[in-house]
Amino acid sequence: MLLTFRRWRRGRPFWGGLITIGAGAEIAAIPLAPLKVMVLQGVTGVVSVMMGLVLVLMGLSAWFAPYYRGLAGVLAVLVAAGALVLSNLGGFFVGTVVGVVGGSLIFAWQPLPPAARSDPPAEPDPAPDGDPDAGPDVEPDGTTSPRTYDAPASRDADAAPPRGADRLAGAGGATGAQGPTADPPTP
């Protein structure tokens, strides 16, 4: 029983939700004084109770719908800050401060990554295609160096020049006014 609760608690922003529920209960409880006092408060007592209920709702949604934690955290902070102005100084500052902390904890919570597999990953095959030279080059000091790229063999002399070669040489060809000039022969 305890193990299942612990697993459930770790899968959601539990402490942020608990703190936010406490802040909502504190903000809502102050106006729920005896009936004579509540009648004197008027509409502000209703607003205080509603803000407290919204904070409790945000704390519960963090528990039971943790994928809405961003929305619940931001709304909890906004309602707690609004309670400072609209609800008896936010439960005499205590409810506002606790609500902002709880909403921040809800917003900041991140789920744990899936547990790593217990078996280590298999070693990669250094030569996947059967070529012994396909793996990385290992230097004498044990470090690996990147493979060098062997350039393809040069083109045949009678093969056509690469596309765009005429543009490189200029409009007048290799000896034209715009093309590159040859170095004078050395004696």
Automatic annotation (TrEMBL):
Transmembrane region(s): 12-33, 39-60, 67-86
Pfam families assigned to the protein according to its UniProt record, in alphabetical order: DUF6114 (PF19609)
Keyword Transmembrane helix on entry: yes
Keywords annotated in UniProt: Membrane, Transmembrane, Transmembrane helix
Name used for this protein in its record: Integral membrane protein
Keyword Transmembrane helix: yes
Lineage start: Bacteria, Bacillati, Actinomycetota, Actinomycetes, Kitasatosporales
Disordered: annotated segments: 115-187
Chain intervals with Low complexity compositional bias: 159-169
Stretches with biased composition (Acidic residues): 126-140
